[in-house]
Amino acid sequence: MISATGDKETLFILDTDHTTYAMKVLPSGQIEHLYYGRKIRISDADGLTEYQEFPAGNTIVPSKEHGNLTLEDVRLEMSSYGKGDIREPFIEIVNSDGSMTSDFRYRLFEKKEGRSTADEGEEDMPRSYGSDAEILEITLEDKENDLELDLVYTVYPSCDVITRYAVVRNGIKNDVVIRKIMSTQLDLNPGEYVFTTFTGAWTREMNRNDIPVGGARLVNSSITGTSSNRANPFVMISRKGCTEEYGDCYGINLVYSGNHYESIEKSSSGKVRFLSGINPDGFTWKLSKGESFASPEAVMTFSPSGYNGQSGQMHKFVSEHILRGQWKDRLRPVLLNSWEASYFDINERKLLRLARKAKSVGIELFVMDDGWFGKRNSDNCSLGDWYPDRKKLPHGIKGLCDKIRKLGLEFGIWVEPEMVNEDSDLYRAHPDWAIKIPGKHHSEGRNQMILDLTRREVQDYVIEAMRNVFSSADISYVKWDMNRIFSDVYSAALPEDRQGEVFHRYVLGLYRVMRTLTKEFPDILFEGCASGGNRFDLGILSFFPQIWASDDTDAAARVKIQNGYSYGYPMSCVTAHVSDCPNHQTLRRTPIETRFNVASFGVLGYECNLCDMKKEDIEAVKAQIAFYKEHREVMQYGRFYRGGLINDSSCCPEDHVTWTVVSKDKKKAVAMTMQMMTRPGIKWRVIRPKGLNEETLYKFSGRDLTFDLRNFGGLVNYVAPFHVRQDGAVHALIAKFVKMRSEPDSHEMYGDAMMYAGVHLKNAFTGAGYNENVAYCPDFGSRIYLIREA
């Protein structure tokens, strides 16, 4: 609920179900931030506003009329440059006279109800939406420079989320230049805060970093032209000592797919300022008379219940107010992707053989990855030439699609529409359509260049090319890839003094392309991909309901990557595949059940050559898919929690990952625990599931699994009546008929007992003996447990 009072002072209170955000207009016209945290009752600003009597020495007062005020030491909703606030500003503008001082002061406010996706124009940035949304627009003005600035707040009560963005308007005859405009600013009282970022690289996405906030400015940003795998735009600010379950935690994200910027610093007075928005590095925007510029929307949530509390609120918000279209709430199919099975070496015969095998194990969707178009036998050519290679697909896309569908499978396809190879018909016809600096050498990534989506004609080409592909057959799924970052940033369609607009105009052009195609093909399930997680953000999720989390399919790496994503993104957005071993990115060997256990907590797929797979692995895959389909709804759309494993106190928590996902009615849950390295002599294991109903009696059980006897090596000789040579023919023959079964963990317990006391699991193998009640859990071992209402 949004309330505004104006009797003695203009006070704004934004309430969600469990949080309050408050601010007031100062007599000088600036807006003071009063509070953001757990829900409180506010009658007026008394006690929340900060006294301003005499400015400290060596500080600036913004005007003679308000000589008691120094902006350097005020919690502000918006800050600018030039009037004494020497902290990092929210906005920087070069005025028509060349000066850079801005003085925005309150003029008026307006309240609105609801926001629809229909409110977005063809070329607009995506924003959150919802009939329950409440909107507050506060207009500030800089009279001397004839500029206006709208601060737009949207409240989503049930999600405990508040969003912000800004719109600047130029009313003067001459141009001004925006050098910086943020989406949100959060000024906090002095305290000990921790800034959490999620950084990485290709195949190493979403590593969590916790950094104490001190006097130096901390920055999380991307200058790659994408939201980037180097630094995701989702960040957290927490009080020192915050845990998964306890403590104050703010989560902030940005609905944007380009260069972003998040900074936090502690001022000389101890106050903390956080900013988030478009990265000002490489950005300028010329604003002529009557024009406006809107920043991307920032998303904020607060929870006093630690990281898990924050995550649950952010997951709910993304699921209800960012995702859209027919696939928003639909169960996602289990797919098989051809990439790691075939790479570029595909043809209709091979693909059909793989599809038949996929059908036999329960796969629902078959995806033809790269290599199907132009003369695409490697990554050196043909990007931009979106017509089928008739040598590989003699009957075209439709011919293959029809045959796949006759097998009872849906059909999907891979595309990379934003890219072009120099060795392509498209580049030979339109070399100026690529982003490069005319007359200068250009750099490439993955042997390709980026199409200049700042240009309308290039956008139209991409739309038409993809329209032709998507309508050529009964296509159910599209994997939309982007396999390089930006370099040599320049658009031949823009004048010299507007080259600072290229990055942002590219993102706007991309959104127009995506909006057009997703509206024209609403039945297609689109999946975003950019070398994996190079563009995993809320902007992409506004068009594509799921994103490929990483090109790394190794379960030991993926469990950490997916754990990182879970802090800000619901698992229904995160796609994950079971792949072959040794893994194609790390050469690591992990158990096939662990590969499934990790992937099943995202949107499950397979990326392996089923035709070459061992019989016992094929049987395991069949059982995995059957289990997943039975519990798919809770695993894709249940409430996700991290943590819950108790082990020996000497164990490093980073060596264990434990997840629980709980159905909305709390009648069913699935828990998973995985260890990295086995520690000798530690047999005691307890798991504490999260999110259960305390008063419900549950049945707790593990999956019934079998393991290859050869995993125990020469230990077979301790029980064999004759000597067995390890890995010899006799060993293989025995293993064919003798299987080691998983330990039968089964209990009936109330929810509170499980969550607070924990469920004692069967002992882990420690070398002292083995029987049916001992858990075989080697390096990278894991288990899934089903929890159902008794």
Q: List low-confidence stretches.
A: 648-653
Q: State mean pLDDT (0 to 100 scale).
A: 94
Intertermini distance: 40 Å
Can you count the beta strands?
A: 41
The proportion of strand residues reads 25-35%
Q: What spatial form do the alpha-carbon principal axes imply? A: globular
Multimerization status: single chain
- Structure classification: alpha+beta
As a percent range, the share of helical residues equals: 10-25%
Structure description:
Helices cover 18% and strands 29% of the residues. It has 790 residues and is an alpha+beta fold. Strands 6, 7, 8, 9, 11, 12, 14, 15, 19 and 20 form a 10-stranded antiparallel β-sheet that branches. An 8-stranded parallel β-barrel has the order 21-22-23-26-27-28-29-30, surrounded by 5 helices. Strands 5, 10, 13, 16, 17 and 18 form a 6-stranded antiparallel β-sheet that branches. Residues 648-653 have low confidence and may be disordered. It is globular and about 100 Å long.
Quick recap:
The chain is an alpha+beta fold.
Keywords:
41 strands; ten-stranded antiparallel beta sheet; eight-stranded parallel barrel; 790 residues
SSE layout:
Blueprint: E1 2-5, E2 11-15, E3 19-25, E4 31-38, E5 91-94, E6 105-115, E7 130-142, E8 147-156, E9 161-170, E10 176-188, E11 193-199, E12 207-212, E13 218-221, E14 235-239, E15 249-255, E16 260-266, E17 272-278, E18 285-287, E19 292-294, E20 297-303, H1 306-321, E21 335-337, H2 339-342, H3 348-361, E22 365-368, H4 396-406, E23 410-415, E24 419-420, H5 425-429, E25 449-450, H6 456-470, E26 477-480, H7 502-520, E27 525-528, H8 538-541, E28 546-548, H9 555-565, E29 574-579, H10 592-599, E30 603-607, H11 615-637, E31 639-642, E32 645-646, E33 656-662, E34 668-675, E35 686-687, E36 697-702, E37 706-708, H12 729-737, E38 739-741, E39 746-750, H13 751-757, E40 759-760, E41 782-789
Parallel strand pairs: 21-22, 21-30, 22-23, 23-26, 26-27, 27-28, 28-29, 29-30
Antiparallel strand pairs: 1-2, 2-3, 3-4, 5-10, 6-7, 7-8, 8-9, 9-19, 9-20, 10-17, 10-18, 11-12, 11-14, 13-16, 14-15, 15-20, 16-17, 24-25, 31-33, 32-35, 33-34, 34-41, 35-40, 36-39, 36-41, 37-38
